[in-house]
């Protein structure tokens, strides 16, 4: 293909997307085994995404697409597929017992998958929640609870006791009812990489759920956390026996 032909092809594609009112980018796949990205032709318009959401979500006060950013075609190494994703915001009643006027605002991504014949809706990926009409839990109380709790960190592979426990910058509080809430928190700790036979020094984002007896009672009983993210700062090779000892000591 000549440079002139290549430029003409790109201009045609841009014209098609512009005519459809689309503003779509294709992210390069950070995966050498990823297949080529599918064609952006036929990607759902903003009107299509909104229509699908409004047909599926009937109890919302409002549904709108995010004004920040734009639609993107991205490769998922976890799902081994290409997605078209479009940000949205949904507002609706929180339906939390004891807080009848509470409202919930949910931000997320509408994910569409290319199946060979075209793009179809796959699922939603919620990225944040905020509440109006119900106060966030006291962060100092939650930190003290986590520091004193005998939590099992083996499922997230910690190789040392967690240090510098703090609430995540984006806690993503999720109220299950007036006496139970989930949230993200952050720790600094050694983390075991069993497949790589390494001990990583990392900052790990975790998620747990806590309870209270009434809406005025103190929080209690955090659940075993699950990992949300990890940033590795350094790594050191270790033998399987050494890693097992780190795991044992972290559980003590």
TrEMBL record:
Signal peptide: 1-28
Residue ranges of the region described as Disordered: 230-252
Keywords from the named record: Signal
Family annotation (PROSITE patterns): PROKAR_LIPOPROTEIN
Protein name per UniProt: Lipoprotein
UniProt source species: Ahniella affigens
């Amino acid at each position: 293909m000549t440079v002139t032909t290549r430029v003409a092809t790109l201009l045609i594609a841009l014209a098609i997307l512009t005519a459809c009112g689309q503003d779509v980018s294709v992210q390069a796949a950070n995966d050498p085994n990823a297949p080529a990205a599918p064609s952006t032709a036929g990607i759902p318009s903003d009107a299509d995404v909104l229509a699908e959401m409004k047909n599926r979500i009937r109890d919302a006060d409002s549904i709108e697409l995010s004004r920040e950013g734009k639609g993107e075609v991205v490769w998922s190494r976890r799902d081994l597929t290409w997605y078209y994703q479009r940000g949205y915001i949904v507002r609706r009643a929180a339906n939390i017992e004891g807080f009848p006027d509470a409202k919930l605002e949910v931000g997320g991504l509408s994910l569409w998958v290319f199946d060979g014949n075209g793009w179809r809706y796959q699922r939603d990926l919620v990225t944040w929640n905020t509440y109006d009409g119900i106060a966030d839990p006291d962060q100092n109380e939650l930190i003290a609870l986590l520091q004193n709790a005998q939590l099992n960190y083996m499922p997230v592979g910690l190789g040392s006791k967690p240090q510098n426990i703090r609430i995540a910058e984006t806690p993503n509080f999720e109220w299950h009812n007036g006496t139970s809430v989930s949230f993200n928190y952050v720790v600094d700790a050694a983390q075991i990489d069993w497949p790589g036979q390494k001990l990583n020094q990392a900052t790990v984002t975790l998620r747990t759920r806590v309870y209270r007896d009434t809406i005025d009672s103190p929080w209690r009983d955090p659940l075993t956390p699950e990992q949300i993210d990890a940033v590795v700062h350094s790594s050191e090779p270790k033998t399987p026996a050494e890693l097992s000892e780190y795991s044992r000591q972290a559980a003590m």
